[in-house]
Amino acid sequence: xEVRNALDIQVVKAARELSIDHFSHLLSxxxxxxxxxRLPVGRCKSLIHLSxxxxxxxxxxxxxxxxxxxxxxxxxxxxxxxxxxxxxxxKEHCLELIAKHCSDRPAAVRSVDLGSIWSLLSKxxxxxxxxxxxxxxxxxxxxxxxxxxxxRLRRDVVMHTLPHLAFVLHRxxxxxxxxxxxxxxxxxxxxxxxxxxxxxxxxPLGVAEIRxxxxxxxxxxxKTVPPTYTTQQHTAVAAETQKAESLAKPFAKHVGHVxxxxxxxxxxPLCVLTPEMRRELEPGLFSLCEMLGEYxxxxxxxxxxxxxxxxxxxxxxxxxxxxxxxxxx
Length: 329
What we know:
Blueprint: H1 2-16, H2 20-35, H3 41-56, H4 63-79, H5 81-84, H6 88-104, H7 111-125, H8 137-153, H9 155-158, H10 162-174, E1 178-179, H11 185-192, H12 207-219, H13 232-241, H14 248-251, H15 255-267, E2 271-272, H16 275-304, H17 307-324
Antiparallel strand pairs: 1-2
Helix pairs in contact: 1-3, 2-3, 2-4, 3-6, 4-7, 6-8, 7-10, 8-12, 10-15, 12-16, 15-16, 15-17, 16-17
C-alpha cells in the first residue's frame, strides 16, 4: 500500500506538469479504456483509480477538460452494465471517483451531471436476486459521501433534482433493515430480493452505516453557500450577494417519501431495525419531522399510511415533540 501511495504521488506530480492538450489527450485515452466492455476487470479498476488520482490535482486551466471527462465517465458508469452491475470492487472504484470529484472540486460539478449521478446510485441501490458473499460497506459509505457533498456543497444544482435525491435516500434507508432470525427459506429469499447485489443477507449493514445515513439527513437542514469559480475581484461581491440557505424548505414536499421507507422498515413482519440502529437514526428522523411540519404530516397519514403506519408515525412524532421541547419552559 505504501509503495502504491508513493507511486500515486509521483503520477500526480508528473501529470501536473502536462500541457492542457496533453492532459486532455491522456484523459481521453483513459476514458476509451473505461468504456471498453472487453477490458479485464483488474485493468478497468486500475484506469478508474488512475483517473481518481489525476483529478485530485490537475494542471492549471483544465477545468473544462476535467468536466468533460467526468461527464464521459458518468455516462459510461450509468450506461454500461459491466460497470454499474460488475463486481463490488469495481463499483467502489467508480463511486470513489465521483465522491472525490464532488468533495474535492464541488464547484466543478455541473447540473448536467446530476441526472447521471442519481441514475447510477439508483441502479447500484436496486434490489436483486444475486448477492456477493461479503457486504461491501465501502460502497454504502461512498454513496453517502456523494450525496452528502452534493447536499452541503452544491445545493444550487441539487435543488432541481430533489425527487431523485428523495428516491436515493428512500433506498438507502430500506437496505439498512435486516431479516428477522429463523425465517424460512422462502421468506429469507423475499427479504434478500430487496437488497442490492453488494449487500449480503448474511452480513447486513450495521450501526456505523445507519449513523452515517442519519448525519446525511441532518445535513439537509444545514445552511450553506454553494462554491463558485470567480475571479478575485468578484469573490467579495459573490460572497455578499449569495445567502446561506438549506434544502429544508424545498425538500419538505419530498420528506414523506423518505419517512415512508422508515415506516416500511418498522412495519415489515419479516425485517427489523434494532433498538441501537433506531437510536442512531433518531437525529436524522427528527430533522425530517422538522422539515415535514404538522400539515404535511397529517396529509401523509391520510393519503399513504395504513393503521400500522399511522401508529408508527404517531410514535415517531411523539418522540420528536419530546426532544423538541426539552429545556423549554
